[in-house]
Amino acid sequence: MDRAFQSVDVERQVLGALIFEGDLSPVIEILKPEYFYLSRHAKIYHTMVELFMRGKPIDSHLLLDELRKKNLLDQVGGASYLADLSANVVTSANLMYHIDILKQKYLARKVRNVSQQAQTLLQSEDPLHVKDWIMSQLISIDDPTTSLGKLSDVAQKVVEEWKGSSRGEPTGFPPVDSIFMGFQPGDLVIVAGATSMGKSAFVQNVVYNLAKKGLPCLILSLEMASELWAKRFISSVSEKGIDDLADEDIQQALKVIKNLPIYIDDDPIVDLVKARAKILRIPDICFVVVDYLQLLSMPQKESREREVAESVKGLKRIARDLQVAMIVVSQLSRMVDRREDRRPRLGDLRESGVIEQTADTVMMLYRPEYYGIFKLELDEGELDTRGLVEVIVAKQRRGPTGSAWLKWEARCLKFSSEEKDIF
Questions:
Q1: Alpha helix locations (H) across 219-263?
Q2: Is 223 annotated in the active site?
Q3: Catalytic residue among 29, 125, 160, 223
């Protein structure tokens, strides 16, 4: 077989190193029997795992006896083959590197098998159904990582975050950033709101603030064309409405935008596999915006709620795997319209409670003015809501919840800081 799909020599090195070490605990979470191409190697490793689970050491004598008891010794090449495995290894220094090679070969075989089965299915199945099947197969390919961490190390990290020494990148709006602990690599941040609350405009403003610091950002726009995004950015940078822009305004805005590491992909049909591929094309990518969650393509499930749940979990997985901050725009359910003030709550997240469970942070936008509410009685006094948006940090895994008010200029889709905060 093509060496792109297997490496028997590396498999032998791994097994020999494990016998040499006599302990599977460093690798038990990340090395699986199916990573081995040769069935004899998979059987040897599986037997090692069984010994380990019984608390037995992994040495050539115990392994030989166990294989003999299971009538597998001849199938794996006999006692001489086991002796060769352990005799040819004098160090386990490269064990993790070799395991990573086996993992890559395994993934290559899985992808190849999916491709071959898909070609067969296309002879009789609808291409769209085959596409959904391919997506489900690729997403289901296991990618084990160790989740173990020492409590003292994790606690120190949390303390540093609370002190502010490890805060992530801020939104650029001080009232919000006094509550929000910042965007961290691997985070899933949901920005939710009812229709016309300014969700896309808010993430646009946040992306602009991040990009001004030289941080590459990708917008996966499933609804708006890239040309409309460009117009919105020009309007926001110029602080003028799109219809009020003069040539001079446009040229000045273009000079600013030219140096911003902002990328826009307006493919309206994006699934998790394509999303990952698009992100990987951007060098040193830090932030990814998905606008919006409910338009992400997913294989058909028994319910829409299940589809959204799979999307959210998949986006979180991508964020962690690629170490990017994922900012995802989400709609709210109609439940918010049943309340007199229409102020959103976590329970209003549309179609899936998994959104709340999976997200590291949930921000919600609320414009009382949109509903004809121009005055609010707050503890600090009466608030004139005209031209204001409340940014509600409804959930935050690493910090407090609360809310802050920002100025909102609808004509140029621009947010700016407002001194009055709510906690």
A1: 226-238, 247-258
A2: yes
A3: 223
